[in-house]
Amino acid sequence: MNLNALDLNLVRVFDALLRERSVTRAGERIGLSQPAVSAALNRLRHALNDQLFVRRGNDMVPTPRAESMAEPVRAALREIERVFQSAEKFDPAELDRTFTLMGADFFSMLLMPPLAARIATLAPGVSFRFLDSARGDVSRLLQEDEIDAALERPLDVADWISSTPLFHSPFAIIAARGNTAVRQAGIAEGERLPMELFCELPHVLRSIDGSMSGSTDEALDRIGRKRRVSLALPHFQAVVLAVANGNYLAAVPRQFAVWAAKSLPVATYEPPLPIAVPEIRMYWHGRHDDEPPHRWLRNQILEAVAALGFRDAADAGGTGD
DNA sequence: TCATGGTAATGTATCCAGGA
DNA sequence: TCCTGGATACATTACCATGA
Asked: Which bases on strand B have an atom closer than 7 Å to a protein beta carbon?
C-alpha cells in the first residue's frame, strides 16, 4: 500500500462509511458531497488494493478487510480528536453534546433529575439520554460508543474499560404500610423483620434477566433458609408499586427504599440476616479517561451522587458483609 | 513578486442498478 | 414504473512548485 496516498480526510471518510453504510449519508455526516465521498472511496480502494465496501442493494457492505480495520481506525481518530481537544481550554458552558448513560431505573428516577438540573445551569448545551440496563452488554455498548457511561454493579469487564466506585447499596426491606401480616406480628417501621415471617411472605424481585433469585436468596441459602419469590419484575419502580398495592415484601437498595417510603404507602424494615452489600460503580471506555468533557461529566455524576447523600445512606446500612 | 502549469479535491449533471 | 442511491465524466477551484 502507498501511505502517501492516504490523508486524514480519507480516514474520516472510511470511518463515516463504516458508521453509515451509505456513501450519501457518510458525506452528510462529514460535510462532503456524495461524489466527493465516492471519489474518496475510490482513492482508498486504490491505496489499499481492496474494494472495502461493496454495494448490496441500498447498503454498502464492508469487506472483511474493512471490518478488520474498523476498530483500529476508530481508535486512531479518537486519539487524534483527544489530542486536539486537550489542546483546547474546556468550558462546560460552551459544550454542545448529548451524553448517554445506562443503568437501572433506580438511577433514572433518583439521580437523573437532580443531575440534569445541576448540569442545565452549568452547561445549557448538554442533553442527556438514559438507557435501561436491559439495553445490552455494557462492554459492547461502550466499545461502540453507544453509551458514555454505565452505572452498574461490579462487572467482569476488559482492561480497556475504566471504572470508579459510586456508592454502596445495602438492602432494606419494604412492605405496604397496611401489610396485615407485618402489622399482626407487631413489627414497627424500621425494625428487623423476623426470619420466619420474612421467609413466609411472598416476595417481589427486581430481575433484569427473568431470574427468580438474587443476593437475598444467596444469603438465605448460606444459612439453609428459603424465601418465596412470587413475582420478578424488570424495574424497581414496578417492584415498589407491586409492594405498595399487595402483600409482598421486597429487598431493594436502601436509597430507593427511603424514596419509596416518602412517596408511596410503603414502610421500610431491616432484613433478618446480613445480605452482601453490592458496590455500584461507574464504567466508561478508557479512551475517555483524559477527555475533558467526559472527565467533567464523571465529576458531575460523582458530585450529584454525593449531594443525594447516597454515601451517607450506605454508611447507615448495617447489613453489609 | 507574479505568471504559469500540474495536481488533487470537489461539485454538477447524468447514468444505471436495485427495491418497492 | 418510479424512487433512491452509487458510480462516472467533466468542469471548477485551490494549492503548490517553478521560472522569469
From this structure: 9-13, 18-19
Q: Does the domain formed by A92-167+278-316 have CATH 3.40.190.10?
A: yes
Residues 12-41 of A with CB under 7 A from strand B: 32-36, 39-40
Could you report the per-residue pLDDT of A8-47, keeping only the tens digit for each?
Answer: 667 777 877 777 777 776 776 666 667 677 777 777 776 6
Fold of A3-87: Arc Repressor Mutant, subunit A (1.10.10)
| Helix-, strand-, coil-residue percentages of chain A, each rounded to 5 | 50, 20, 30
Residue A165, classed as helix, strand or coil, is strand
Comparing CA positions, the residue from A77, A93, A254, A96 lying closest to residue A174 is A254
pLDDT of A63: 76
Query: Per the CATH hierarchy, to which homologous superfamily does domain A171-269 belong?
Result: Periplasmic binding protein-like II (3.40.190.10)
